[in-house]
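Crash report, auto-generated. Payload:
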Amino acid sequence: MTGADVIDRCQALARMSESADCITRTFCCPAMHDMHRTLRAWMEPAGMRAETDSAGNLRGVYPGQQVDGPWLLIGSHVDTVPDAGAYDGVLGVVLGIAVVQALHGRRLPFGIEVVAFSEEEGVRFGVPFIGSRGLVGTLDEALLARTDAKGISVAQALRDFGVGEAAARREYLGYLEMHIEQGPVLESLDLPLGVVTAIVGQTRAEVRFRGAANHAGTTPMHLRRDAMAAAARWIALVERAARATPGAVATVGSVHTSPGAGNVIAGEVRATLDVRHADDGVREALVARLRSAAEMIAVRRGLQVEWNARLSQAAVACDAILTELLARAAEACGQRAHRLASGAGHDAMIVAAIAPVAMLFLRSPGGISHHPDEAVNAGDVEAALAAGAAFLGELERRYV
Amino acid sequence: MTGADVIDRCQALARMSESADCITRTFCCPAMHDMHRTLRAWMEPAGMRAETDSAGNLRGVYPGQQVDGPWLLIGSHVDTVPDAGAYDGVLGVVLGIAVVQALHGRRLPFGIEVVAFSEEEGVRFGVPFIGSRGLVGTLDEALLARTDAKGISVAQALRDFGVGEAAARREYLGYLEMHIEQGPVLESLDLPLGVVTAIVGQTRAEVRFRGAANHAGTTPMHLRRDAMAAAARWIALVERAARATPGAVATVGSVHTSPGAGNVIAGEVRATLDVRHADDGVREALVARLRSAAEMIAVRRGLQVEWNARLSQAAVACDAILTELLARAAEACGQRAHRLASGAGHDAMIVAAIAPVAMLFLRSPGGISHHPDEAVNAGDVEAALAAGAAFLGELERRYV
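Recovered output after restart:
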């Protein structure tokens, strides 16, 4: 298969949608049946036996030389956000099938399982990673009982979809996820591929500055307790501090002023904060610094500040050895294997609980994702195909 | 009358409301009939003939020594914002009546007209100063045809209320408005009274910063075009520039982030700007500086900025001689006559088109106004009463 063939397959799958106007494919929706039927029709000629597991994941099994040998898991998710692009998740599954197909039935010292995870985006049930949680065994009763907007539970959705048995527990030597970058880094470096070192940890908080709402005309500057002026100082500092911390990103994406009138000094401002870094210690130190800066700004101005923690998620490191092999594989195909952290979450975060993981990023034109304009270059897909095949070769040499 | 008597009268008028729960009294509402009836009942024993003019203003006429002599206008407005306090506007009318009453029928070289303006707040028709525009003769056809939320025009509202004839045109030697400060300056200086030098001019604008919405995790700091980070720099600068400009106030009271999600870099921010100063040149220079700063910040960051002018209103100077007489009057009563600019608009702005104007501010406890907690100290009202009487004495000495 060529890169263009892989793109054609992704485009074919993009037509399987809940909506006539756009690409939307949530967990266990009817379009997922078409998706599975098509993926099976591609898996089987490549030598895989396809089965749906109890979490709605489609798993294509390509046995190795020994019945009790180890397995390599390759895959990604096939659900989407509403009004999505054609490549987020899906590309990794199609590439996995193509890599196996390129073996032309040749057996390796390990089996390969290509997985199409049923759910990663968290759209239907407000909780992400249902598919990979099912695979690793953390799809618990509480999550199965969770309901969607129509009151249908995860368990009921799975029954209605008609899922299979819990899959046989396999011993995985590793997990490879090939995914679009969904960001601008590789494009800015003019590189087709990147090797992911870690999936960043993340802190989210809501920060409230409380001052005093007052008349914008009659309150002199020195008698104000302006929550927006205080918040502005802090937001500028958030950016400065993140810029000064290599590898960190920090974002104030939403600001709400109250009462929010042009001629009234803001009495309260609510701002969101999102901080990410591949090193949890660096992230926590940065967050602590931003928090004390907010408090200092508030105290100096006679304001109160309230810090509401919303999320603190640890970073997940990719496996050093597997990542090194993946980088060598890419370099063997003539690519520079740029190391970068993933700023977004991926199924690999969950699978890391049961197996060493490695991730290959493909350049995202314009850095665009979660949008109909999401794209991928045929040449970059070709490079990823070659790197995937070379990665199997690297593993083969280690497992002989 | 004592200060406490004046406060009692304001409290009695506060019960005349459109709402059972709070003080709300808009232009020509039924409660305005009770208001007029009560004011008449106070004007007449003080020696005034009360009449409603064609704009719904109640005017109490206290003749001077000569039939064709000049007139002093004293007053303020008797409408309110929704859920108002008891003193904004009303206090100036009650004080005007009390000052005339204190003459005990003695004739002065000029007549006095106490006016209760029908409308100043702009609540019912979205346009302020209907009362004072009526008095000065700028209540034009376009304004009379303007309709409220129920489709009733200003002209119809006046007919329904049952207004009088257009009042006789009088030659005014001046206008005195006594009003609560509605700000914290006098309280911060521990002073009961202030003398207004000017009503500030005002610029309002909406400023849009346009960058690029992007994933908060996958977009490194150096590849962002974060509209909120840019806006924050600018808002901090707005505050700094206003603090560095004596007498200026500048406010960003409302900020709107778009798309406004915690994990998405803001692609667009809309911010309001309100700049006021007693000197139009200073205000315009400050606005120009803020505008070029917004443009510089945007250019440096690869953003666009859009500047939408919303209002540019010139300052109105109080009359220098009348203001000096008012300051002397206050000082003769043992008060320090602190000079300050009014950051809010007042009927005096409109009356200034036909007469020299002077304004006396009374300290606002807590700086609170347009709120049920709006208050005034009895001792401060007493001081204002004395200053008002002394002001008549100052004028008398000049007009003999």
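Post-recovery validation: DSSP finds twelve helices and 16 strands in chain B.
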